[in-house]
UniProtKB/TrEMBL annotation:
GO molecular function: DNA binding
Native species: invertebrate metagenome
Protein name as it appears in the record: Putative chromosome-partitioning protein ParB
Domain ParB-like N-terminal: 27-117
Gene Ontology CC annotations of this record: chromosome
GO BP, one annotated term: chromosome segregation
SUPFAM superfamilies, sorted: ParB/Sulfiredoxin
Pfam families for the chain: KorB, ParB_N
UniProt-annotated stretches for the region Disordered: 226-247
InterPro entries: Chromosome_partition/occlusion, KorB_DNA-db, KorB_domain, ParB/RepB/Spo0J, ParB/Sulfiredoxin_sf, ParB_N
Length: 310
């Protein structure tokens, strides 16, 4: 595929110059005669504010649409935010510019992607979806990287976000995570321990507190550690002689838990099993700093069991 031709498309899309030739004249149509296309961009911010601006100052530039289709509708190529804003206005009209050039869906996606990346209008999951469209159209990672002006590792990292489990992608939809590395850490955690990852995501929703990169990294490290053998009693006999009795050695376990502190930051520590609290709903925890504190049992999440060799 000729990338130079697509670059020209991107330059044309970003140009503020309007061609007023007969083939490119601006039309004013009913806003309901314009429809949206399949969008990689899922969330549109500040639509109400944009609508108020258009109402007071007018529509400063037309949206770009394809020629009218068999259903009598113009399909948006660029300018969906303006279209959504115009739909809120009472006059019910919108200015459009019909693009007569026959672009493939892949070419449109490429042009749209570079425009939105430059304007930082797409979130991480939306960028991943747009890159997937280019890949499905036959583009290689090196071609995509060259076209959008990013490294190949950038493309590979975002492509890995295309198949996030639902519990993780929902964090993005609810503004509880917006960091690529955090998404990837959680994805790996899901592959290692699905149940734990789902609990972590569920806690984030319930507490409405974003998951940090450090928290996701710590959880992944813990999940990768070898699991301790089941606890119980082991029998140790003296070598060389039959045992007349059994010396029993009880294996002690340490229970590592996590919880959210008063400032909203995640904390980890171990349950102090030799301490009994008068309130059965409170648990004594020793933090990694050595400090001990009482935490409601309902706020604790068990991370792992470890053998206490001390």
């Amino acid at each position: 595929m000729d990338l130079s031709a697509l670059t020209n498309l991107a330059h044309q899309a970003s140009s503020n110059t309007v061609d007023h030739s007969p083939e490119r004249k601006i039309l004013t149509v009913n806003v309901d005669d314009v429809v949206s296309k399949t969008q990689h961009r899922k969330r549109f911010k500040n639509i109400k504010e944009l609508s108020q601006s258009i109402e007071s100052d007018g529509q400063q530039s037309p949206i770009i649409v394809r020629p009218i289709n068999n259903e009598g509708k113009y399909v948006i190529q660029k300018g969906e935010r303006r279209w959504r804003a115009c739909k809120l206005l009472k006059n019910g009209t919108i200015d459009i510019l019909v693009n007569q050039e026959n672009q493939s869906l892949v070419e449109e996606a490429a042009s749209e992607l570079i425009e939105n990346i430059q304007r930082e209008d797409l979130d991480h999951i939306e960028i991943a979806g747009a890159l997937q469209t280019l890949k499905s159209g036959g583009w290689k990672a090196t071609q995509i990287a060259s076209y959008i002006g990013k490294s190949k590792s950038y493309v590979s990292k975002y492509m890995a976000l295309c198949d996030l489990p639902e519990c993780i992608s929902a964090l993005n939809d609810n503004d509880l995570c917006s960091d690529t590395d955090t998404f990837l850490n959680l994805k790996k955690l899901y592959e290692l321990d699905k149940e734990r990852c789902e609990v972590v995501c569920s806690n984030a929703f319930q507490e409405e507190i974003p998951i940090t990169r450090k928290e996701s990294k710590d959880l992944l490290i813990i999940a990768k550690e070898p699991q301790p053998k089941p606890t119980g009693e082991t029998i140790k006999e003296k070598p060389g002689k039959p045992s007349k009795g059994r010396n029993k050695m009880l294996i002690k376990t340490k229970i590592m838990v996590s919880f959210l502190a008063e400032d909203g930051q995640p904390q980890t520590g171990y349950i102090l099993q030799n301490r009994i609290n008068e309130d059965p709903h409170m648990i004594c925890i020793q933090l990694e700093t050595g400090e001990s504190r009482e935490v409601p049992a309902s706020h604790l999440s068990v991370l792992r069991l470890a053998i206490d060799n001390g």
